[in-house]
C-alpha cells in the first residue's frame, strides 16, 4: 500500500488534539486571522506564524510583544502649586506595547496588531497560515535548539522510535532547521548542558515513547502512514512541546552520526515499507543495467 503523506499541519494537529493525554504536549495553535493574532498576543509574549503547508521551515515568522516605557520632562505649573520649588521638573512616564516581527534575518517593529497584520498579509498572500504560542527553547552554546524524533513502522509492522537528533539554530536564525544552517548534534550532547545523567536518560526514554504514542494516534486518522518525524521543543522547565509532525521526515541526515548502525536500521525499515530501495535490490538493478549495456 502506498505510504500516506499529510501536508497540512492543521489537519495533523487536530488529529493529535483528539487524544487528551497527548493534547497537553501541543502549544496553543490556531488558524491565523487578525482577531486570533490580537487574542494570542494578549495571552503570550511571543508567537510563531507559519504556513499550514510547507517544509524546511520556509515561511516561518516570529512575533515578540515588548513593553516600552516612554518618559518626558515638563516644567511644573507654578500657578497651581503652593510655594513650588523654582524650575521644578515633573517626569511623566507611560508605557506602550511594541511588536517585533522577525522573518529570515530581518526584524521590523510595529506599534499595533493592525499595523503588524498588514505587514503579515503581504507575506502570507491569502495562503492558509497558523499561529502558535511561542516556546522559549533551551540553548546549546547560547543558541536555541529543538529535537527531531524519528518513528517508523518496523519489520513486524509495529511503531518504533529509531532515531533522535538535536538541531541547533544558526546565528540570527529563528528556526533550527538543518536546511537553514542549523547544526546537527546528538540529543545527549545538548541535554547534558541542562540535566544530570539520570534526567538525560529519562528524557530520552520519554521522547522514544512519545514518538510511538503520537504515531499511533495519527494513524487512527491516517492509516496509511509509515513514518513520522516529531519536532519537539524543551522549555526552561524541561517540559516537552510538540511543535509539529512531519509525515515525510528526512532520514539521510542520520548518516551524519558516527554510529552507522542507527542509519542502517532506519534504512532497513524504510526499505521494508517502500520509502527507499533495498540495498540488495539496488545493486541487482545496477548489475542488470550493466549487463544490458554490455549485450
UniProtKB/TrEMBL annotation:
Pfam families: ATPgrasp_YheCD. InterPro entries: YheC/D (IPR026838). This is Endospore coat-associated protein.
Amino acid at each position: 500500500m502506498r505510504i500516506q503523506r499529510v501536508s497540512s499541519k492543521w489537519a495533523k494537529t487536530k488529529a493529535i488534539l483528539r487524544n487528551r493525554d497527548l493534547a497537553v504536549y501541543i502549544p496553543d495553535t490556531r488558524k491565523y486571522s487578525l482577531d486570533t493574532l490580537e487574542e494570542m498576543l494578549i495571552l503570550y509574549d511571543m508567537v510563531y506564524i507559519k504556513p499550514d503547508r510547507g517544509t524546511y521551515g520556509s515561511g516561518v515568522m516570529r512575533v515578540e510583544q515588548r513593553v516600552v516605557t516612554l518618559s518626558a520632562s515638563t516644567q511644573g505649573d507654578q500657578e497651581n502649586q503652593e510655594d513650588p520649588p523654582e524650575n521644578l521638573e515633573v517626569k511623566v512616564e507611560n508605557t506602550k506595547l511594541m511588536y517585533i516581527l522577525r522573518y529570515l534575518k530581518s526584524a521590523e517593529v510595529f506599534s499595533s496588531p493592525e499595523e503588524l497584520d498588514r505587514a503579515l498579509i503581504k507575506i502570507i498572500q491569502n495562503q492558509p497560515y497558523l499561529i502558535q504560542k511561542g516556546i522559549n527553547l533551551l540553548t546549546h552554546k547560547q543558541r536555541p535548539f529543538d529535537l527531531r524524533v524519528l518513528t517508523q513502522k518496523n519489520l513486524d509492522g509495529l511503531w518504533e522510535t529509531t532515531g533522535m537528533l538535536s538541531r541547533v539554530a544558526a546565528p540570527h536564525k529563528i528556526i533550527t532547521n538543518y536546511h537553514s544552517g542549523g547544526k546537527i548534534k546528538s540529543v545527549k550532547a545538548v541535554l547534558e548542558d541542562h540535566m544530570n545523567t539520570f534526567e538525560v536518560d529519562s528524557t530520552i526514554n520519554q521522547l522514544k515513547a512519545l514518538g510511538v504514542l503520537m504515531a499511533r494516534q495519527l494513524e487512527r486518522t491516517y492509516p496509511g502512514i509509515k513514518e513520522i518525524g516529531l519536532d519537539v521543543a524543551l522549555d526552561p522547565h524541561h517540559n516537552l512541546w510538540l511543535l509539529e509532525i512531519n509525515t515525510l521526515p528526512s532520514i539521510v541526515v542520520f548518516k551524519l552520526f558516527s554510529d552507522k548502525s542507527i542509519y542502517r536500521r532506519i534504512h532497513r525499515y524504510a526499505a521494508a515499507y517502500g520509502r527507499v530501495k533495498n540495498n540488495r535490490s539496488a545493486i541487482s538493478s545496477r548489475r542488470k543495467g550493466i549487463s544490458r549495456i554490455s549485450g
